[in-house]
Fold these 3 entries.
Entry 1:
Amino acid sequence: MVGVRRWVASAAVSALACGTAVGVGAGPAQAAAGAPTGLRTAGQSCAAEAPGPYLSPARLNDAQAVVLTGAVAEAGEDAQADFQVWDVAKPDERQQWLGGAVAGDQGAYVQLEDYSKQLDGVTYAWRVRLLDGSGASGWSDTCYFTVDRTGGTEPVVTSPEYVDGDVDLRGAIGVSGTFVFTPTTDDVVAYRYRFYSGEASQEAVWVDAAADRLGAPLTVTWAPKVAGYHSITVYAVDRAGNLSQFAEKAFTVRETRPSIFSADYSEFGPNLDFTVGKPGAFQFSGTAGGTASFEWSIDQGGPSGTAPADASGKATVMIAPTRSGQQTLTVRSIDRDGTKSPSRDYSFVVDDGPIVTGPSGDVIVGTPVKLAAAPRAENVEAYLYWPEDGGLFPRPVQKVTVPARADGTAEITWIPTLADRNVDGLRIQSRSADGTLSVPRYQAVRVDEAIPAVTRSGGDAPGETATLTARTRMPGVVKWTVQVNGAETVEQDVAPAADGSVTFRYTPTVRGYHSVGFVAHNAHAATTLGAAGWTVTDAPRITSAEFPAPGSGRIAPGAFTFTPRLPGTVRYEYSIDSTGYVKLPALANGTAVTPAWTPAAAGRHLINVRSYDAKGYASTIASYFFDVAPAAVTVTAVAPASVAAGAVRTLTVTGTQLRAKDVVDVTPAGGKPITGTVRSTSADGKSTTVDVNLAGAALGKATITIRPYGAGQSPVVRAAAFTIIAAPAMRATKAPTITGTVAVGGTVRLTTGTWTPAPTAYAYQWMANGVAIKGATGAAYVIPASLLGKRLTVVVAAARPGYTLNRATSAATAAVAKGRAPAPTARLPKITGTAKVGRTLTADPGAWNLKPDAYRYEWRLNGKLIQNGSVRTLKLTAGMRGKKVMVTVVARKAGYNDGRSTTRAVTVAK
């Protein structure tokens, strides 16, 4: 489409130079002698006048270039075609295009591939001459062409019947309509259009139609074949063959065909309750008012007829199909004036295939598949079945006949073999006595080849026996065929175990690839081969705790352990990082450990090892790659986020390249580092567990520092890695209690109460009226006299490592009462001295169970108190002659009731 110029860079096919070429004249000239003739522009004859043909390079060839050619009569070995191309509006700015030249109709040839020199909308002139050595021919005639790369805007599409106006009331099936395509540019020569319908989308094809003249509109007449959604898409085609933007109009075609419905003979699938000869209900409904009747027929000579419509334009017809299989019912509605509507086709299947029951889905090779078939057709005498092989096209049909019983039923037995591995279903049909075949019934099956599953242990080294066990899903295995290393000539038949499996032992004698395959057989078929393959090597095994593979080691000393596979290994040779091989004798058990080795640098390293036996035979070389990464240590997280102070706590540090030999420090806020004990490190180096004693640690954010082992390792610090919080306090769930006699001299005892968690230690303090009793810190306490009248309590302190000590106080006792009165022991009080007038009697207080603080003596004469006090003696007078004297000793002790004991009476002599 002629329009605005565009500049786009592209690669030129040959070396070009812009500007005025040698020998360029002021304007076009007629062809000189020896100049190329038969000039063609993009395959078209030379246009001697502007604008020439309109060309769209993108539509011409894969190179998307205008091709210029000319016929050459003769050309030397080094001849060149010298093309000049110029914008007719700029004759002084000429392009030079050089290319090889040969004799022939297109001996002078060039592709104008530079987009920036073939601008859209520009008319170009061109000519060509031959350059041969130092000579040049004259110029050819001048030809013209115009570059047109764009197709312009979309045309305008109108239709009074279908596109414009009220589409629901205009047009119908079979009603012709006119569609007018009007261009929006003046260089349109043709149109490309397509009618599309949702119901018959497969019939949508593109149509190309030429305009009567340049820039003329086009009128198309079209009648719809179906109803519902439709659209028309239209392109305008310009002189260069460019397509415009497309115009699309959607419209609806009014439905005039009757509708058809049947639940008995559904178009969505067969109803097995209905078959040949059984009438089913079909409902017809007219779609326009005035429907009087319907005419109907079934294809291929099936039944036909007419049916009157009811007042609502509907009819129900009972139709009994006369044959089985796919068939089409065609229905027209007829108006009261006799006008017939377009026909409606209704496709359905009449299914008289047998009822088949039995296994479906996966079936195992060699296992009989038993299917029961019951007839749905008349006079069934036999059944035919055949497998459908999904791997073959067309699918072969090899039918097997099974006679029916007298009642028309039969049992079909099919035994799949490996030849049936691609079968995806069975087809079963009945055959009546007159030879009529029913619709086939499909039973989906997939054949499981029962490939043996093979497991292996051992056999990795020469001389080491491999034990292989094979199992299969195929039942009834009667034998196994074992194939060693793919050689059918060494197959062995082996009897199965009781469970159908087989165990086979094989000892490889040489290194290299080995395989053992198994095929199971039962009475009907064999399975597909199942095999175990592995590589036997005599290369030694290499392990290293310090330099794991996979994993990463450090720039620190480490060793490698070699374990032999070669029988009789007596020594090793190893090389680290392609240095010279080092000899290393084997220990008695064939193993060896290298001396400690320290990597010189980080990165990937390699150790190669081979072993030798006593005869000097060398094993295969074992290669062991490992990484050393001094700068890869990171700490990404510490768990838990909060840790209680007061005891040894376990932290989990997450990161990369962590190792058990790392030193882990925890620095509390404002405190000194606490070095932890690494308990374990994961094999991948991504986590480490460490125990840290946080007894006495300050609360707040704590920092984790990893000091990696090995050279070149800088400490890795994670500030505020976790928070140290106060340890949880012990909690009393039941208060302490006091038991015992709450009296002076009495013993009271405590119970500690109940605590959570269970304490590991207790401390006690007895209190009197809330004041601590000095020294009273035992589990029992003897009440002194000084506490008389006071109330006792006890404070119990419970402790457990990792928890804050807590205290609980018992309930107070009653006031401390006086103690029990002292009582004399075995030596009772008595009166000593001679009971005669003039003499003095003395009271002996005796011995008491409590040492009294003091005694008081009550002397009585014939029961009458005559002296009371601390005096323990009594002077006998004449008035006392013949009377009885006794004394009561009162023992007094602070805090205790008084004790009393009365002596025997003595009589004063006359």
Note: The chain has no helices and 74 strands.
Entry 2:
Amino acid sequence: MPASMSLRLTPWLPLAILGFSLGYATTVLTRLPWWTLFLIAVVWIVLGVKLAWGRPLNARYRRMWPWSLVPISLAGVYVYLADSFGNVDLGAVFFHLQAGMTEHGGAGKMLSAVVYIVVVTGILWSVTWLSRHDQRWRLAERFFALLLLAANPLLYGLGQRSVAIVTDDGEWLDRRYVSPPIEEPQRTPNLLIMYLESLERTYSNPIFGDAYADLNALGEQGLVFEGIRQMDNTGWTMAGMIASQCGVPLMPAGLLHDTQFEPLTQVVPGVDCLGDILAAQGYRLSYLGGASTQFAGKGLFYRGHQFNTVKGKEDFVPDMEDPEYLNSWGLFDDTLYDLTLDEIRRLDAEDDGPWAVINLNLAGHAPSGFPSQTCQDRQGPFDGQDILYSVECSAHEARVFIEQLEREGLLDDTLVVVLSDHLTMRVSVWDQLTALDRDNTLIMLGDHIAPQRIRRDATMLDAFPTILEALGFTLDEHRAGLGASLLGEKPTLVEVHGIEVLNERLREETALQHRLWEGLAPQRRDVEESPTSQIFEAPADQTDEVSIMR
């Protein structure tokens, strides 16, 4: 760089890059409004000029590489994840690396990643320039590097999972696992489960207007559950589906141990899930999703748990009237529901025993959703940002679909379950959502469902036994997996221990992880434990153990 150009750009350019980057990271990781990034940047630049950063009086140039380059890069990864998803879930990162990320719809995220790479490169250059030209920076950045490493939640999470290997008791959750039933149910109604992507019940709050109104209308006809909170390792699509169909959090197969990052061939093969239970009773099982079944192991999960029909974007597009009518993830909801309607008509016409159909829509997907053309014709133009527009679309399309099935008589003797797969990630109303007590959607409709509202402290783990009991299965102590039926009086794990304790125990758990991945992960050491040798974690737990375990 010519000397004249260098004088004009430095130290102003590195100070400005660091100032604005620090300001932006602060607004991402806190609830400060976006405009405070400019205030932080100005304060940083003024401080740098006043202290003559990069231009000290006794300047001694030294060609060196700062220790903080790697910690800064890792911090950039964390800020990117927090900016993209709101809450950084380390389990989700590892699971998607193993289960596969092909056919994802994150084209926008890829562009954002490129921008982040450019910005972080600028930060690394700025720190290097200042460290080479200012001995104060050369000394301080070493301590800054250690601080970044210690404060990075990604590395903290990795350390916790590593420590779990040698924890004194890594079987706290596994001891509470109850195998689901294999006996014939009292009746065998059909089952329709509709996962509404990211459409949490929090949107029913009046501050979000009428966005949730259609689901409120559906809820008046059936059973609404309130207080379904989000436990760790249940906060992304596959994890939410596994929690509500298997009663367990999704602990990835490889976290610094076990199978490492080998591609998965099965998904949670060690536990019986809803598909396994219904298949044993002669149900014909179908899964239809708007996105690809190759993404995040959805196809592996449903095929591995005895679903007869498993279809996603790649299966539907060749037969669509307009193959170009797609969003970046896959099918719009109006198309998906038309195809689901055809599938239910086919199953009903065969009259060959009960059927169960599960579908997963896309309209509410963060950050802005994918409203269908049907919604845009009804709601007016979409600005491409307002998630409430997409929430209203998702809720309305779901209600219209259910009403269409009712008109055709396809819901006779059928349990309908409408639920969110997980709480939403970062969206346009993120600050308003995170200021509230958030919970998931769970609504049940059917001939044997009396309209009412039930409020319980629960998680999606409890949806599993609740669905089973609503279908007519008899459960031991009203439990299955780690869940307790919300139709019974037995307490849930959250009601007994609290969500914080469950999340803490999950970070220390190893036995449940081995149970989930039995056959894929190295097997745990068998320890014969008699009832009389039960280990209690603390005196306060002993009373709870009696009601939670048998």
Note: Residues 269 and 517 are 6 Å apart (CA to CA).
Entry 3:
Amino acid sequence: MLTFFTKNLGWRIQFTLSLFVFITAIPIGLIWYKSSEQVLVKTIEKLYHHSSEVIKSQLDDFFTEAKTVYKHQSRLNINLAETINDREKLLAHIANILSHHHDIDYYYFANNKGALLSLGKYQKAQYIRIESDQPSVGPISSYKADFNGNGEHVLNQKAFFDPRARDWYQRALEKNQPVWSNIYPGAIEDILGISLSKVLKDTDGKVLGVWGLDLTLNSVTQKLHKSKLSPNSTVLLMNTRGEIIASTNDQHAPKDGQLLNVASGQTPLLQTIWPTVSPAEYYKNNSAYQFHYQGEQWVCFTSYYPLSDNRDILVLLITPISDFTSEFIEAKHFAIIITVLLIGIAIYYGSYGTKYILTPIIRLTHSAEAISQGKWEHQIHLERQDELGQLARSFNKMIDHLKSYIDQLNAHQDETARLNALLEKQNQKLEERVQARTRSLTEANQKLQQLAYYDPLTNVANRRYFWDEFERQLHQPTGPAESPLHRGWLFILDIDNFKQFNDQYGHVVGDDALKHFSLVCTTCLRDQDLIGRIGGEEFAIWSNVVHQSEAQAIADAILSALSSRSLFVTDSHEAIFISVSIGVTSCQYEDNNCYARADKELYKAKAAGKNQVCINTHKC
């Protein structure tokens, strides 16, 4: 349907006339509606911007004073390691810090045994002391206390409390600087707050405990109430997960010690706007957002407060526009009615003008449609001297040229088809020749690789390829073993009495013996192990196994397999067994003496009677 409107000249002319009348009415609409509404929204946005800056300034005061506490602590020039071991000194220190920082709600210390001593603001003339009942983890009680922390009137008790399991304690252990925790309930009461904690260590780096201070959400909420702009407005602090940290609306208060989340469905107003205002690229613009909720227009202003790296607090101010002016709403509706009336007049006169202008155009359209169906004899007859008449005459000339051109195209069509068929046949032959050539090159490359890397008699790695691969393995940056220096094990194997064997049976049988030996060894190795022929009857094996027992197992498997699998000599119908002496050494990162050590172990095995293995671990 949209295509019909965009291609229909009559509709476009009518739309143009209507738009002309509508544009004429724009000044009235701007006076009655747009200008006033924009001024109102801009005014609200400026008020909200100022209010959000006030809120962020208050948050700055909160968080700046929190960080100042630890600076104050360092300026007191006291021995903290000695203070924390004396309850009276520790309580006096906490009371002193708390009395100098009025925005801090709780200040406390938890030692490395799980005992807690905390002092917080309870009423205007009193503090509350929360203290473990023993010097280690266990029961905990809260007391009414004076400004020095003294007092024994019990307010509440808890059977067991371990501060070391809390988020603020664990986060503090990760850094030597003060670190903010997530929001969590208090030690005894379920009052939610956020902690700035800092680890305390002795001179040897041992953890003595963790200092902490709390900002409760109740205090933050009291500050937010001072930033409300109207009776029905709401001021909120939220995190990026959709949890309401603090709000001037009592319905947003935490429940059962848990922050209320937008996703819970208990905040339908916030749930309506959350998908729009939650993306970082939106709320970091500090902009106003208008929306409708339950038939009423609202304005939401968003900004953010960076708590720490990758942790932002969203500041939301929401209010119905009707709180600011109800008279403007009536004026807006009146402006809409006037605009709609003017558009109706434009549509009426546009339809009349369109009918007058489009009558010859419709005839021209019908004629063009008939010609598009191949009815070349259908000429356009329009006796007019204006632009439409000129268009009709030009169109008739174009039809004559088009018919002649199409006839020429039909004449060349068969020739084009014949040439395409011939070209396709030639391409097919060329492709077959390319494929045959590719196969020949692949086979040649495989043969060259076999000759370059493998011994033609035994079909194991030749001397050059084995030592090149051995050097590569030995100089890799990292290794898979117990020590980052360990790379694996080098085996040097020499067939026992091979010269006498050749003299007795001949070189042909000797070659068969080498093949037999290579095959038996290969069956005893893993896929990732490498065996190579490095001399006449001398072979080498590289394995990246870790432990000596694994290397011993490989050597034992080779000796056992050779003793159980004989070589059959066809000429003499004799089954003979081959034995081997093996020297093994552990290879380290960039070790240049591996072969010498393994060869030395080989000669030890030869000297000890042959058909055995000697291992040198060479541990660094």
Note: The longest helix spans residues 9-75.
